[in-house]
Amino acid sequence: MLPIVTIVVDGREIEAREGDRLIDAIRAAGTEVPSLCYYPHIDPPLGTCRVCNVLVNGRQMASCTTPVKAGMVVATADAALQDNRKAMVEMLFVEGNHFCPACEKSGDCDLQGIGYQLGINATRYPHLFIDRVIDYNPERIVIEHNRCIRCRRCVEEVLTDEGKKVFSFANRGNETEVAIDYEQEARLSEEQAIRAMHICPTGAILVSGKSLARPFGERKYDVDHRTTLPVTPPSTPAKPAGGRKTIATTSLAGCFGCHMSMLDIDLELLDLVELVTFDKSPLTDIKEFSQRVDVGLIEGGCCNSENVEVLREFRRKCDVLVSVGECAIWGGLPAMRNTVPLRECLEEAYLHSLTSEEAEQVIPRHEDIPQILDKVYACSEVVKIDYFIPGCPPDAHYIWKVVKNILFGEAYSVLSSEFKYD
Amino acid sequence: MSNAIEMKSVSLHRPQLLNALWALHDVKNYLSDTDITTLAALFDISRVEVEGVASFYHFFHRQPAGKHTIYLNKSIVSEFQGFQEVRTAFEAETGARCGHADESGQFGFFETACIGLSDQEPAALIDFYPFTRLNPEKVRKIIAGIKSGASVASLADTPEDNIRYTPGDGRTLLLSPYEPGTALRTLLQLEPADVIRQIKESGLSGMGGAFFPTALKWESCSNSRSSRKFIVCNADEGEPGTFKDRVLLNRLPGLVIEGMALAAYATGASEGVLYLRAEYRYLKEKLEAAIEEFRQQGLLGDQIPALQPFSFDIRVQLGAGAYVCGEETALLNSMEGLRGEPRTKLYFPTERGYLEKPTIVNNVETFACAARIIEKGPQYLLRLGTPESPGTKLISVSGDCDRPGIYEIEWGMPLGELLALCDARDPHLVQVSGPSGKMVPAADRQRRISRRDLPCNGSFMVFSKDRDLLQILKNFSDFFKHESCGICTPCRAGNFILNRKLEKLQLGLGSQYDLDELQQWGQTIREASRCGLGQTAPNSISDAIRHFPDYFDARVDKSGSDLQRGFDLEAAEREYREITSLKK
Description:
Largest sheet of chain A: 5 strands, mixed
Shape of chain A: globular
Strand content of chain B: 5-15%
Helix content of chain B: 40-55%
Largest sheet of chain B: 6 strands, mixed
Number of strands of chain B: 17
Mean pLDDT of chain B: 94
Strand order of the largest sheet of chain A: 2-1-5-3-4
Oligomer: heterodimer
Radius of gyration of chain A: 25 Å
Structural class of chain A: alpha/beta
Radius of gyration of chain B: 24 Å
Distance between the termini of chain A: 48 Å
Low-confidence stretches of chain B: 1-11
Number of helices of chain B: 24
Strand content of chain A: 15-25%
């Protein structure tokens, strides 16, 4: 057996066995390193997600595939390193089609959990929106290819009693995907299938009828708001210099949920109206801008030409423009249509739906009604956006903290428990 | 091709899977569902595992790919020398749409990554026979010939070696006159440790582009007490623009064989494998004949009489189309009948390589160099090149120059001198070491091609002023997007994301912000990727933005407007207007 050696982790000397995996040594010493693919018992480690990267003697390495060596100097909290970890997770989000509010695994999903943990607000990369299938062919399992992050856990871990693989990677490059063997899958017991679902870090492997077994609110990453959300301290802002500030809001391709959330601040609303004046907004029912405003809050992305016009007008009239909620930030639920050609969407909605007339042939159109765009665009694709407030919807207190910060430079800190995507 | 492997010769060991896939594929130029089922049963693995391996390699088809399968090279050099016309001609003559077989099933037509014929582009493989310097007229004749029943072999071209330059007398290393067996016979006077010492003295390092000290590899393998060791020659020359290994294998196969045998002698290995990329399948018979010739001469085989009890033999393993298999651990996985994904770097191949046994993987040119060092002595090599970078290097020159081909240069040659030697036409930039290498302005004529300044893996592509930079970058990016093995996040997703960004710039919709992001995102991919592919893929984009700011300045929005230039409302509305026939 190899000797115990000393390594330095974040300036602290720790002991570890030479040759052991660095990630285990760091975790054993009490420092958390996030990962989406790592399992201590898989040899060699998978090394696919690259989220567990740390700096070893100044160089970035995946801590799961790096063996401990005497004298190593490891940094786990370097700012650039943490940004790269976030970048990895953001890449996974934009590469797949992850619609958390519509996902069975929401709250139990490691990808979503790491998103919260790393404090990802908006992805720096545009979503790729690749059309992928949901495979209902297997006996028990449903494969949701939109959500697979190709961690390889299932490929290595899910075997039949005869030791045959049920999953394998298929194809190559950007088309790499996990394929399932129908014949072998049929040989899995229900327990084995459920285990496959549980080792999947996202909602890509589901077992029919079993995926909602644990109710929302009791899931792995669910936060009990009653006990952990700190009570927002009573806001007694000093009268700001420069008079009352102005705010405008609008809802584009959204569900008005973010606006509902804005109203949820209850009594604080009274403080707020002392401080700000609302201009154009559904909250005031003012239809036109009466002046240039300080802050514009946008809910929803752009799915039609009218959304684009409104958004551009907001950009022209607002000093600071904020995307509020997932739909504004990257398209959100309405962007589910982005992987489907527009023609198919319209035909499904107007010609072949259950409620359409028999032999219906007309897709509504008129010069005066807005044109549907080829896909749903994130607001930041159309105009420059200054801030993002993530969540689906973002918590009311959280929205107003951000807004107050923008308006009055008031210090605040956002807890990861305060934003939710589900 | 004729040399289909008999299925009965296939054993059930997993490393034979690649050969078994080839054997079935050769029967009808694709793998049917039944084939997959057959192989799953033969190898006692699940169907999805066979599928997974087959779908990794781009020369294995799962749909009928024609009785004759055509692969046209779409590397950037080909693109600039008439690719589009030739492609159109192939489609017109065969009736096959690119990426498919024609209706009658006679022809399948596909694009493919660089096939190692960059000095005679546009080039294609038909049934894995080479066809060079194509033009529409030549395509018409070839297809007419095949249709009239002529054998593809009889119509194929013999690729030229195009050796354009060697250093003067007494200064040529690799391409000097060769007498088979000279290096091996020297071994009669050398102990294994002497071989390693001479290689070490020469300072030889990996010629595939990683420049890892060869002697260290050999020493590490030699130190292992394992009773079974392997010598693997990496002839998976996939970097676009390089073709020097093709020429070496075609011209001096014996030198490569001797290099492998030396490594075996030095380390106590007895089994050798030459992993040949499928694009060079037309060289397989020749290589096997050369190996047989060495056996006949008593220089290779079960018991080499001259060096009893040392015994060493070599077989040729055919790849099946995957750039990443040039990475040594991916190559080992491929040899083991797996998907060619790079391994995690917990062990060096010299500790645990092929079948977990100590294995030396060296490039074709490295083995050839090793043979020359033993033949001529390390001092011969040390006189050449520069003190920091002694020796010579084979450079494959292609692109906008009048004398494309192979140049054996002494390390340290100034960039300008090589550009002059190859008669570069109004050179503007040079892509050194292929898409994964460095993009260098041709104006940097004083820079030296050496391990220290401008290391080169053999690929040297010259581009003149009128070549569009974004077209070059997009071609490279398409290549990486497709050739990433797909297992690690930054390389698989990151290269796709960069590719989309380049599309945006090509459409004229980019801003300075996009250029900054390309740099930042490229840096992330470089730092976080698992193997050399991802760690180098963004290089040319970063180099281009750094070296050619004027080009980009003219193509991005610098107005600082709050509206995104990348969003085109009219284009976004177009589809709806078309579907509903709504007039603007």
